[in-house]
TrEMBL record:
Source organism per UniProt: Roseibium sediminicola
PANTHER family: LYTIC MUREIN TRANSGLYCOSYLASE, MEMBRANE-BOUND LYTIC MUREIN TRANSGLYCOSYLASE B
Domain Transglycosylase SLT: 34-244
Keywords: Glycosyltransferase, Signal, Transferase
InterPro entries noted in UniProt: Lysozyme-like_dom_sf, MltB-like, SLT_2
Keyword presence, Metal-binding: no
Record's protein name: Lytic murein transglycosylase
EC number(s) reported in the record: 2.4.-.-
Length: 275
């Protein structure tokens, strides 16, 4: 038996012993050297949540994500933490606001039938969805290079965030069990998934089959866009109502991202896109 197999076997045995007991929260960490101990404790929680062998193995193989740790230990390194106008926020990723709006309109026109169908079902305008899609991944052009499980577990481990994101880490492990992810699947720096960069817990809660092929896949644009609309609707989005700053729909955007900079930029861009 290899050292890795021995560690995994120990994790499975320890977790199984706790199945009949209440779940205990893993102790959050403030130094990288505590990460392995955190994973051992999270394995107990994961087993209590029904995570199986494949998910536990992915957890055992997860490594601390350096970029995630940097963001969490130095929040000022995240551009969304510094106040910016909507124009400045968009230009931090795109050459100009005009180029972003032009690209968004192009995707909106190319997928007009899909966006009409989604708006009819969920009440969320295509201009809002295509703005989020564009800002998150450049309309699917870049979905991230960080191992999803490693990013999700690192985010959950850090004391500034704990226990808010532990459910997302466990959801990522459950997705491994379901065959929707592997331990090597790549995404955003904190475990975000696919075209719209969902956290695993949100994908598990809101996923819908947008292209009606019998499965839900965050790397399929139709599924991701429909799921985003479903998430916004279930968090209070009102069909046909305005979404500018100060409105009820604008506040719903906080369910997607709690950064005021982000919310203002999406609402601003969506307003330009639909003109």
């Amino acid at each position: 038996m290899t050292p890795g197999q021995t560690i995994l076997r120990s994790m499975v045995i320890a977790s199984a012993m706790l199945l009949a007991t209440p779940a205990l929260a893993a102790s959050c960490i403030t130094s990288k050297g505590q990460f392995q101990a955190y994973k051992q404790q999270l394995a107990q929680q994961a087993a209590n949540a029904g995570v199986g062998r494949r998910g536990l193995q992915a957890l055992q193989q997860a490594k601390l994500s350096g970029i995630t740790w940097k963001f969490e230990s130095s929040p000022s390194s995240q551009s969304s933490m510094r106040y910016r106008s909507p124009e400045q926020f968009l230009k931090s990723r795109f050459s100009s606001v005009n180029s972003f709006v032009s690209g968004a309109r192009q995707r909106l026109n190319q997928n007009a039938r899909l966006f009409r169908s989604i708006e009819k079902r969920y009440g969320v305008p295509g201009s809002v969805l295509v703005a989020i899609w564009g800002y998150e991944t450049g309309w699917g052009g870049y979905t991230g290079k960080t191992p999803v499980v490693s990013g999700a577990v690192t985010l959950a481990s850090y004391c500034r965030r704990s226990p808010r994101f532990e459910d997302d880490a466990i959801a990522a492990l459950q997705m491994v069990d379901q065959g929707l992810l592997t331990g090597n699947s790549r995404g955003g720096p904190s475990g975000e998934l696919g075209h719209m960069q969902f956290l695993a817990g949100n994908w598990s809660r809101y996923a819908v089959d947008g292209n009606r092929d019998g499965r839900t896949d965050p790397n399929n644009a139709a599924d991701a866009l429909a799921t985003a609309a479903n998430m916004l609707r279930r968090n209070g989005w009102q069909s046909g109502r305005p979404f500018g700053e100060g409105t009820a729909n604008f506040r719903v955007l906080s369910a997607w991202n709690d950064s005021g900079n982000y919310q203002r930029a999406i609402a601003y861009a969506a307003g330009l896109i639909q003109q």
